[in-house]
Automatic annotation (TrEMBL):
UniProt-annotated binding residues for Ca(2+): T621
Membrane topology: Single-pass type II membrane protein
GO BP annotation list: carbohydrate metabolic process
Residue spans crossing the bilayer: none
Keyword field contains ATP-binding: no
Cellular localisation: Endomembrane system
Role played: Involved in the maturation of Asn-linked oligosaccharides. Progressively trim alpha-1,2-linked mannose residues from Man(9)GlcNAc(2) to produce Man(5)GlcNAc(2).
Disulfide bonds, paired cysteine numbers: C464-C496
Protein name in UniProt: alpha-1,2-Mannosidase
Origin species: Melopsittacus undulatus (Budgerigar)
GO MF annotations, alphabetized: calcium ion binding; mannosyl-oligosaccharide 1,2-alpha-mannosidase activity
């Protein structure tokens, strides 16, 4: 009996076994039962052998599934040019030679794996000989290396851009000795605030001047980001406090780190940190401030990842997760927050050549332009998921204020090229004048708050900035109403001065009413505090620049004296809880904006106008001066008015 030859490596199938009559014709008659049995045994042994060979021989398809880069070694190839034939992926011609090569390669690989194993074992043994401390130190060194590498990458110099014309960075020293003396007093107050923060709160966000320790609020998250240092830098520079400025710069260079697991307010970080760093960069030319500003801006960008592109109020600097304030109407974002990014973001795009920042704020603008506005007014709340307004409340004070300010300043900052922003400002101001601005019985002009179709006759301290805004926007106003807006600015300044003058401490309350016989006076106990806010002094300064009416310097000096008398303590400056009380209690917080804004505006009020002239500089809402960008020749992609 012959059995068909097996070609185990060929993979050929065995011919089918025919156990019927045609398979063994000569034996048909003579086959007995025992012979049949032996034959069956032989056949079954043969089948078992075939199955064994089939299952235990190497399977090339398995090798193919793991891509170890070894395909060239383990998968047989057919070089058809040399007459080889591919039969089911196995070689017939030249097979022996390749099998040999194949075995050699396998051996080489096995040796390599063995050697690697031994090496790893040796290294592990060596490690185990070291003490725990040594191992930890090694890990730390490795970590530090990685951090250093990342830092190097982060602090790569940014592409050079032509610096805008920086005019008016000078001492602004007034000739009049009386004015000089007043200005020196304000400088001394700045030094008192800074030195105490330096001593007791260094690196913390703010200072508790009575407890003499650091202070922070949730707007800065839970980390120590030195908010006072960053916010105060440009004031120190302008006042010529150069040693203090250098101390601040050194701290920022070495310690200001934004890779922290901390949830911060996008708005506050933008106006205080990015604004502060950019202003410090433009004034001093020190590259570190620009680099830090850009790093920080990168950390804020994830806040814009919402269904509409309207940013969240808060973002975690590490994870990039954003959310809104729990108290805001229907999960809304706040107009004054997402509407107060434009100036800083345009500068960031200008300095980096990266349009991402510019595109983010222009997207917000475009979205707002498309929306219906009840009575032409912008409500304070906008839902970033649905793109719909929340409650129909409108305010030129808290929640709304700096949105209007930034429309005007976007136009000014673009060298008056951004006419779209100017139009939005003009439209908004017209609606505000129509619906929110009234005269009290006693003849005081005030700006109320619009709540669901009803005017609340109450004005906030924050709203007092609007006097300065109206004056700043007078030039270039629609229908040439410059005189009207300058007058409106003067009336608001007067009303706000009255709110100071009608208190015991000569400091303004947080909010004041014009209702039921009350004029410019706080009624509720929780609106009687003064927390070192700048808005009234800010308006005095703008009014001074545009009119040179000496009453603004006089009012500014009254406020300076009141602050020095009632808010100064040996550990710095504190807010007071009741401006109508002759024995006020302190809130024990030295706000960073006291150094950034209040003292800066006071100092400028008693300086010459050629220090930071308003034709060349635009102050952000935290009083950080940014230069006008003559963008006529610069392309910031996206807005045709800039091209
Ligand atoms: C500052 O942080 C800014 O002026 C902001 O726009 C609102 N108010 C505070 C100070 O009062």
């Amino acid at each position: 009996m012959t059995t068909p030859a097996l070609l185990p490596l060929s993979g050929r199938r065995l011919p089918p076994l025919n156990l019927g009559a045609s398979a063994f014709p000569h034996h048909r008659a003579t086959l007995r039962l025992s012979e049949k049995f032996i034959l069956l045994l032989i056949l079954s042994a043969f089948i078992t052998l075939c199955f064994g060979a089939f299952f235990f021989l190497p399977d090339s398809s398995k090798h193919k599934r793991f891509d170890l880069g070894l395909e060239d070694v383990l998968i047989p190839h057919v070089d058809t040019s040399k007459g080889g034939k591919n039969l089911g992926g196995f070689l017939i011609h030249g097979q022996e030679h390749d099998e040999h090569r194949h075995r050699e390669e396998e051996e080489r690989l096995r040796n390599k794996i063995r050697a690697d194993h031994e090496k790893a074992l040796e290294e592990a043994k060596e490690k185990l000989k070291k003490s725990r401390d040594e191992i930890q130190a090694e890990i730390q060194t490795e970590k530090n290396k990685v951090v250093q590498e990342l830092k190097k990458k982060d602090s790569k110099p940014l592409p050079p851009v032509p610096l805008p014309n920086l005019i008016g960075i000078n001492s602004g020293e007034p000739a009049d000795p009386d004015i000089r003396e007043k200005r020196n007093k304000i400088k001394e107050m700045m030094k008192h605030a800074w030195d105490n923060y330096r001593q007791y709160g260094w690196g913390h966000n703010e200072l508790k001047p009575i407890a003499r320790k650091g202070h922070s609020t949730n707007i800065f998250g839970n980390s120590q980001m030195g908010a006072t240092i960053v916010d105060a830098l440009d004031t120190l520079y302008i006042m010529g406090l150069h040693d203090e400025f250098r101390e601040g710069q050194e701290w920022i260079d070495k310690n200001l780190d934004f890779s922290v697991n901390s949830e911060v307010s996008v708005f506050e970080v933008n106006i205080r940190f990015i604004g502060g760093l950019l202003a410090a960069y433009y004034l001093s030319g020190q590259e570190v401030f620009k680099i830090k500003a850009v790093q920080l801006a990168g950390k804020l960008l994830p806040a814009f990842n919402t269904p509409t592109g309207i940013p969240w109020a808060m973002v975690n600097l590490k994870s990039g997760v954003g959310r809104n304030w729990g108290w805001a109407s229907a999960g809304s974002s706040i107009l004054a927050e997402f509407g107060t990014l434009h100036m800083e973001f345009v500068h960031l795009s200008y300095l980096t050549g990266d349009p991402v920042y510019y595109n983010k704020v222009m997207h917000i603008r475009k979205l707002l332009q498309k929306m219906d506005r009840p009575n032409g007014l912008y409500p304070n709340y906008l839902n970033p998921r649905t793109g719909r307004w929340g409650q129909h409340h409108t305010s030129v004070g808290g929640l709304g204020d700096s949105f209007y300010e930034y429309l005007l300043k976007a136009w000014l900052m673009s060298d008056k090229m951004d006419t779209e922003a100017r139009k939005m400002y003009d439209d908004a101001i017209e609606a505000i004048e129509k619906h929110l601005i009234r005269k009290s019985n006693g003849g005081l002009t005030f700006i109320g708050e619009w709540k669901n179709g009803h005017l609340e006759r109450k004005m906030g301290h924050l709203t007092c900035f609007a006097g300065g805004m109206f004056a700043l926007g007078a030039d270039g106003s629609r229908d040439d109403k410059a005189g009207h807006y300058l007058q409106l600015g003067a009336e608001i300044a007067h009303t706000c001065h009255e709110s100071y003058d009608r208190t015991t401490l000569k400091l303004g309350p947080e909010a004041f009413k014009f209702d039921g016989g009350v004029e410019a006076v706080a009624v509720r106990q929780n609106e009687k505090y003064y927390i070192l806010r700048p808005e009234v002094i800010e308006t005095y300064w703008y009014m001074w620049r545009f009119t040179h009416d000496p009453k603004y310097r006089q009012w500014g000096w009254e406020a300076t004296q009141a602050i020095d008398k009632y808010c100064r303590v040996s550990g710095g400056f504190s807010g007071v809880k009741d401006v109508y009380s002759s024995s006020p209690t302190y809130d024990d917080v030295q706000q960073s904006f006291f150094l950034a804004e209040t003292l800066k505006y006071l100092y400028l009020l008693f300086s010459n106008d050629d220090l930071l002239p308003l034709d060349n500089w635009v102050f952000n809402t935290e009083a950080h001066p940014l230069p006008v960008l003559h963008l006529a020749n610069t392309t910031l992609s996206g807005n045709p008015t800039y091209q």
